[in-house]
Every structure is written in structure tokens, then in C-alpha cells.
Specification:
two-stranded antiparallel ribbon; three-stranded antiparallel beta sheet; alpha+beta
């Protein structure tokens, strides 16, 4: 890489907007039973900006970003692996992923409704 290429790369990385961390507010822990026989324990709520980014990621098929949001809200589960690790969500079957996602979405909706 030439000096000029390194300068351009450094400048581009400085100009790139920094990704804000997902801010999670604590809530009570809720354990939900899934139709597939597993359970998930969910805790926390996120800001609207994160719900929008999550929804955009779902709509565009960006599952890796979706996994990051699930990983900050799913505290425990009976599937293999640590649910706080976004990489383990790729090991779920599609019907399991749908059920985990639905449980978290219901949790977020309930948290939103309970905050007036």
C-alpha cells in the first residue's frame, strides 16, 4: 500500500460515522416458553433508534445486525450456546429464530405499553 493510499484510508476511517452502542435499560427478567420446546429469558428495553435500526436490518435481510440486538436482550435460553454472543444465533433453525425473534418483539411491545 502506498503512502497516498494509507492517507486516504485513514481519512475515510476518521470520516465514517461511529456506530453507537446499543443502550439497554434494565427491566424485569421474563422467561417465555417457545412452541419448539425451548425457553428464552429476556431482559431490557432499547431506544427507538435501535428499534428502527433493528427493523431496517430485518427488512434488508441483515441478520448479523439483528443478532446483535437479540444478544443484548436475550439473557438466557435452553438452546446450545450463550445467547449474549451474536454468533450463536446462526446455529438456530429458521423456525427457532422466528420464535426467539417473536418473543423478544412481544417483550419490547409490552415494555413500550407499560411506559406511559
Amino acid at each position: 500500500m502506498t503512502d497516498e493510499q494509507e492517507k486516504v484510508e485513514a481519512q475515510e476511517s476518521e470520516e465514517a460515522p461511529k456506530e453507537q452502542p446499543i443502550e439497554v435499560a434494565p427491566t424485569e427478567r421474563i422467561t417465555k416458553s417457545l412452541a419448539c420446546g425451548h425457553t428464552v429469558t429476556i431482559s431490557g428495553r432499547v431506544r427507538m433508534r435501535d428499534i428502527r435500526k433493528w427493523t431496517d436490518a430485518e427488512n434488508s435481510g441483515d441478520w448479523l445486525t439483528c443478532y446483535k440486538y437479540l444478544a443484548v436482550l436475550v439473557a438466557e435460553w435452553t438452546f446450545a450456546g450463550d445467547p449474549t454472543d451474536p454468533d450463536v444465533y446462526d446455529d438456530l433453525w429458521p423456525h427457532e429464530m422466528r420464535q426467539v425473534n417473536a418473543a423478544v418483539s412481544q417483550h419490547i411491545t409490552a415494555q413500550t405499553a407499560s411506559k406511559n
